[in-house]
Amino acid sequence: MEATLFFQYLLYILCSILLVVLIILGVKLINVIDKVNVIADNVNTKLNSLNRVFSVIDLTTDKLSLLSDKVIDVVTMALRKLNIFNRKRKRDEEEYE
Fold it and tell me: What is the tens place of the pLDDT at every residue in 18-30?
């Protein structure tokens, strides 16, 4: 009877210690989660500022691409016209021979 009573008290003491340890770990886990949330908010703020920079860069590259396409179109049209005139001159020269 004394052995069972001893083991009951030992079990109660060990369960109490386990409960205290779990409460301490839970509090530390809450603190860690709060720190992670602060870091995540900081990263999110920095990413939003970078998104603005990247959108400006994207807009600039789109405009430069459009401009270079227009310049290339003008140059190719000019070269085509010169090439057509050269072909007509060659055909005319061949017909006269």
Answer: 999 999 999 999 9
Provide the sign of the torsion angle of the four alpha carbons 84, 89, 90, 91, taken in this order. positive
Residue in this structure with the two tokens 């860690």, named with its chain if needed = 32
DSSP character at residue 97: -
Between CA 79 and CA 68 the distance in angstroms is: 16
Query: CA 21, 24, 29, 32 torsion: positive or negative?
Result: negative
Tens-place pLDDT, residues 29-44: 999 999 999 999 999 9
For residue 73, the Cα-to-chain-centroid distance in whole angstroms is: 34
Q: What is the DSSP letter of 1?
A: -
Residue 84 has pLDDT above 80, yes or no: no
Pure H helices in the chain? 2-96
